[in-house]
Specification:
It is a single chain. The protein is mostly beta strands. The strands form nine sheets. Strands 10, 11, 12, 13 and 14 form a five-stranded antiparallel beta sheet that branches. Strands 1-36-35-34 form a four-stranded antiparallel beta sheet. Helix 1 packs antiparallel against helix 2. The longest helix has about 30 residues. About 10% of the residues have low confidence.
């Protein structure tokens, strides 16, 4: 007998007999309570059932990249503070199985070409047998893990920020020799040829998807410069400066270029500036958005929490107890997503490739899934603590959540979720 039929039978019994009313109405009430408990349990199970699997790492989960086809995830795993014990792991996203691991070479940074064929790594570690520091940039076959060639070795100390152009043709990295200024080197990745060097004590930040613009950042006196350069030649096109914070915290500007390569968004302290890349003019600014504080190897960093939709139409920003969506072109407020969080702020925002879903998280609360157009909460994902980062794969259904954790906790995991 179905639950509904059973409930109706109990109701009729209660009506027809005083004895049954006394004896069985209590059963009806208990049935309803049990049904409510089962309903609540089913909701919880549904939330947890979105989780496909977890990728456990040793001590600390570093940066990660998902290939454009959504099939492979690459991340840095570290077993201690030592550079010698930073590994690169390559995973199959459908199954969660480890494909291979690059060990014992002190990997400090990496990037993956857009076609998913080349893995480029920065190596910086101490060779205990030769009693010398080893520094190198190497290119690998991502599918097999075999070394293709070495771009540079045993010359300079690299700064953990390699960037590949979207077409996979150009590699940008930064380095430093002794006490000299930091410089930027740009290579042709296919040939390994050095194209040019920028000697202005700067480091690379990002490359536009159309491969025309390189953004670099450098510190001059009490100012931070954001520079727009021609990627092909290194020529400076536009420059903007930010006043350094008087705070004892290290303020790290966040720079994001829209997917259509027309707009650059810069976040610094309490402000966001939206800039036209073609003309160099500032379109508008937003004030009072949220910044999250992270502790990385003992140093406190402010990180800017915002994202641009893949169609380049929407800017999403984090605020105390809310998420706001804006028209990227005009700065007009579109929606406010009420999120009564109890923490210092959101730690990550991700937007699905189909421009329909926003995912947000804090380091102390569950992952929340929102409808981008209506601003309504769709569901909550339970089961990942201290989440620091989020990313979608290309199918807009698979979500990656990362908890980098500290060196003494058990939350250092990557989780893979399947959204409805």
């Amino acid at each position: 007998m179905s639950p509904k039929a059973q409930a109706n039978q109990l109701k009729e019994a209660c009506k027809s007999s005083e004895y049954l009313m006394q004896l069985r109405c209590s059963e009806l009430l208990e049935f309803k309570k049990q049904n409510q408990r089962n309903s609540s349990k089913s909701v919880l199970n549904a939330q947890e059932s979105f989780l496909k699997y977890s990728l456990n790492n040793k001590k600390y989960v570093g940066s990660f990249v998902v290939t454009s086809d959504g099939q492979t995830l690459v991340n840095i795993d570290s077993s201690s503070y030592s550079d010698n014990e930073r590994f690169i792991k390559v995973w199959h996203l459908d199954t969660g199985k480890l494909i291979y691991s690059l060990n014992n070479h002190g990997y400090s940074g990496f990037d993956v070409s857009s076609d998913g064929q080349i893995l480029v790594t920065e190596n910086s570690y101490y060779d205990n047998e030769k009693y010398t520091q080893v520094n190198a940039i190497k290119a690998w076959n991502l599918k097999t893990g075999k070394l293709r060639y070495t771009l540079l070795e045993d010359e300079e100390l690299f700064r953990r920020n390699l960037i590949l152009s979207n077409d996979g043709q150009t590699l940008v990295g930064s380095s430093k020799v002794g006490s000299s200024k930091e410089n930027i080197k740009v290579w042709n990745l296919k040939t390994g040829k050095l194209l040019y060097t920028i000697n202005d004590n700067s480091h690379p930040n990002t490359i536009s998807l159309n491969g025309q613009t390189l953004v670099t950042v450098n510190h001059v006196n009490e100012k931070i410069n954001i520079n727009l350069r021609n990627l092909g030649t290194g020529q400076l096109k536009h420059s903007y400066y930010l006043n350094k914070s008087v705070s004892d915290k290290l303020i790290v500007p966040k720079v994001v270029i829209s997917p259509n390569s027309k707009i650059m968004v810069v976040g610094y302290e309490e402000n966001i500036a939206v800039i036209d890349i073609i003309t160099g003019s500032i379109k508008y600014t937003l004030n009072g958005y949220n910044k999250n504080i992270s502790n990385i190897e003992g140093r406190s960093f402010y990180s800017m929490i915002f994202a641009i939709s893949p169609d380049s139409e929407t800017l999403v920003t984090s605020h105390p107890k809310s998420i706001k969506t804006w028209n990227l072109e005009t700065g007009r407020l579109k929606n406010t997503l009420e999120d009564n969080i109890e923490t210092k702020g959101h730690s990550a925002i991700a937007i699905s490739p189909n421009n329909k879903t926003i995912v947000t998280v804090t380091e102390t609360e569950p992952i929340k899934v929102w409808d981008l157009n209506t601003g309504k909460l769709k569901t909550t994902l339970i089961g990942h603590k201290e989440t620091n980062d989020l990313a979608f794969t290309s199918n807009a259904k698979t979500l990656i959540s990362v908890s980098r954790g500290s060196y003494d906790d058990k939350n250092k995991t990557i989780k893979v979720w399947q959204l409805p």
